Amino acid sequence: MPSFTSPDQGDDLDACVLRFSDLDLKDTRLINPSSSLKAELDVCMKKKYSFAKKKAFALFVKTKEIPAPSFECKDKWWKCCQQLFRDQISIHRHAATQHADEICHQTASVLKQLAVTLNTSKSLKSEVNRNPLKEYFIYNHEVSAWLPDLSCFSPDELISGQGSDEGEVLLYYCYRDLEDPHWVCAWQTALCQHLYLTGKVRIATEGINGTVGGSKLATRLYVEVMLSCPLFKDYMCKDDFKTSKGGACCFPELRVGVFEEIVPMGISPNKISYKKPGIHLSPGEFHKEVEKFLSQANEEQSDTILLDCRNFYESKIGRFQGCLAPDIRKFSYFPSYIDKNLELFREKKVLMYCTGGIRCERGSAYLKAKGVCKEVFQLKGGIHKYLEEFPNGFYKGKLFVFDERYALSYNSDIVSECSYCGAPWDQYKLCSTPQCRQLILTCPACQRQGFTACCVTCQDKGRRLASSPSQSSFKEECECTARRPRIPSELTQQVRLPTSPEPQPDVGEDGPCLCEQQQFPRPSES
């Protein structure tokens, strides 16, 4: 991994970082984050701060690079905030004026990385001799060194087949400690742009989580690069990449970023680590456990809970028979849900599952840490891998995905209903009212009657906006969302969902906010 170097790394850097770490980097009240940050530093530390800020700025600009058209003399352009920049001056001006707070946050991360490097720099030479991987990265730290050779392919070959019928979407994650997530971020950005991939990739010191779409050639090359990279080749295999029909069209753009967690549970990885998860069960093993669980359905007291770790709008259109599906809107509510309903899990064997397995890694670790369960198991590869092996198994309905497809279909079962008329329906659409952005289930017959919003209240707002465009401001959170309990309380006994479609809640049932899907706080829940 490339190391951070500075022309003047003195002993005062530790003090600089220690003082800096107490700053609230999420405090939006800072009018000028960069000035406030710099004010925390003594004169003798300004050089370190200046170095960190320049590196943070360069990394931010690097993540916005896109290949320039072949007819241009330049080899790259930049795209940010839906704007195209053809020269470095304009993207630099845009970054400095519109993204100062993001660069400030990244500067903090660089300073912390500098502190880590400083603590180990004295023993670097001997460490390199002991660690060939570190040596390899030190002398091959340029991002370009880790991009595949495309000389035998034309851009047309990489771009063709990006449509939903011919292209492919990859879903994957890898938990492993990363010393320099910002370098990985720059590399992933360059790699995806190199292969004309779109999607979302989250990177943290605990690993990487991504979902990307493009042509089948591009996704194949992406997997090959990931599996050959020394950072991941000993931690991943080809089977860790879940595939489905799709392409670059499934995502509006490419978004790559560095975060504290690769899936946002809301608890620091230092407190609940991925290194202490539940016991992994293969799809075949999980299938047998569910079969055994369902055979005990008539018993009054079952010692097993089949727990869906996803959000309510995901389990609403597809789930395992007999599962307990928490009525929560975000995975960051999951720990509070466990705390509030802890007695439900006492002395129980818990079978957990999610879309691709990533939420179960730390979700199971959190539940295990409570010390109340008899055993905690999780489905390896998630529903995605289970449906590949058992398309007509115990999972009924569609599999929700966090891109513009909304769902994948493996069987013909429909387990949800139109929110207006109650007819079987499981195809999500966006609420028609601007700024609401909820996902709704409304069948074609109801759509033809004009029922295209998430609830009656929102429908009325939409009509008022249509007649008076100037009245365009109202709460983004709809009333039907506000009525939903943030953390539901379950009964003392396990509540089983019926295997046939159940009546849906009133029209007030809401869907997820689109901004939550397309931003990194929940971009690619594997």
UniProtKB/TrEMBL annotation:
Annotated Rhodanese domain residues: 300-395
SUPFAM superfamilies for this protein: Rhodanese/Cell cycle control phosphatase (SSF52821)
InterPro entries: Rhodanese-like_dom, Rhodanese-like_dom_sf, Rhodanese_C, TrhO, TRHO_N, TSTD2_N
Pfam families reported in the protein's UniProt record: Rhodanese, Rhodanese_C, TSTD2_N, UPF0176_N
Residue segments, region Disordered: 489-526
Record CDD domains: RHOD_YceA
Biased composition (Polar residues): 516-526
Gene3D superfamilies, alphabetized: 3.30.70.100, Rhodanese-like domain
Name this protein carries in UniProt: Thiosulfate sulfurtransferase/rhodanese-like domain-containing protein 2
Organism: Canis lupus dingo (dingo)
Taxonomy of the source species: Eukaryota, Metazoa, Chordata, Craniata, Vertebrata
